[in-house]
UniProtKB/TrEMBL annotation:
It comes from Paracoccus halophilus. It holds the Pfam family BPD_transp_1. This is ABC transporter permease. Gene3D superfamilies: MetI-like. Residues 66-277 form the ABC transmembrane type-1 domain.
Length: 295
């Protein structure tokens, strides 16, 4: 008997496809068009080939921004992932305090990006800010608008304050999924706290840690609003990350061709690094997910 196919379900998916086409595919094709063409206005384009890509690959400005971006993402992951795990391990597991802590941990995640930048811009000012004024009173020479190191510290602390809660909440969810039987077996075997963490809690958190690392890497690698509001990419170019440099090139200088090529390269880098993260951590998860019988 010949199988018949019912394609009516496509009518349900069609609205989503239309929305995606207008919100993602069409803008992406526009960027691709600018990346391979040059224009002198009046919507007239001239084929440029790989000229803009070659210019960006050999651009010292792009190399410096990429170096700052990689360094920032590495520092963020090195701080927020261990700190999030530590916070999750010490959060109350049940009762009133558990609910209260969960609400408090979620509060930074609810604040819009530009508001976070404004808060820390005011908070760090020496004249009116609580942090800047306190450091000045202690004799610490702190000024994020003129000192590159102070600007970096401010941006990093701001991001840690804003996003560590995400890692902590994901790890907390992973911990809550561990059956109590594992802890009971560990107590019977008189396992140390480190052994419980290493052989029970960490393997069970690997799945959520994978999600946390991927989300934090992608967010930190695409960060724009918070450092732009606080430092504007300064002092000098010390906090000009890739996204800030891209906006300056496209909007400030109106170099649409190089900016389009830059954005496509930016997109490919994020996709490749995310794929590497996902592959490596998935293999680690499959290799070490089993809990040993002896702790």
């Amino acid at each position: 008997m010949e199988k018949t196919w019912n394609n009516k379900a496509w009518f349900l998916v069609l609205p989503v496809l239309v929305v995606v086409a207008f919100s993602a595919v069409i803008p992406l094709m526009t960027v691709v068009n600018y990346a391979f063409n040059d224009t002198f206005g009046n919507n007239q384009f001239f084929w440029a080939g790989l000229e803009w890509f070659d210019e960006m690959v050999h651009s010292e400005r792009l190399h410096e921004a990429l170096g700052r971006q990689v360094l920032f993402s590495a520092i963020i992951l090195a701080i927020e992932v261990p700190l999030g795990i530590f916070v999750a391990l010490n959060m109350p597991k049940k009762g009133f305090w558990s609910s209260l802590v969960l609400v408090l941990m979620a509060l930074p995640l609810l604040i819009p990006f530009n508001v976070v930048g404004t808060i820390w811009q005011i908070f760090g000012r020496v004249d009116i800010g609580l942090l800047g004024g306190a450091l000045a009173a202690l004799g610490v020479d702190y000024n994020y608008t003129s000192d590159p190191l102070d600007a970096w510290v401010t941006v990093i602390v701001m991001d840690v304050w804003h996003w560590t809660s995400l890692v902590a909440l994901l790890c907390y969810a992973g911990l809550q999924s561990i059956p109590q039987a594992y802890y009971q077996a560990a107590r019977i075997d008189q396992a140390s706290r480190w052994a419980v963490f290493r052989h029970i809690e960490l393997p069970k958190m690997k799945g959520v840690l994978l999600i946390a690392v991927l989300l934090r890497f992608m967010d930190s690698f695409m960060i724009y609003t918070e450092p732009f509001v606080v430092t504007g990419g300064g002092p000098g170019n010390s906090t000009t990350f890739l996204s800030i440099d891209l906006v300056k090139m496209a909007v400030g200088q109106f170099d649409l061709g190089p900016a389009a090529a830059f954005s496509l390269m930016y997109f490919v880098v994020i996709m490749l690094v995310s794929w590497v993260f996902y592959t490596v951590m998935s293999n680690m998860d499959r290799a070490g997910s089993d809990i040993p019988e002896e702790l």
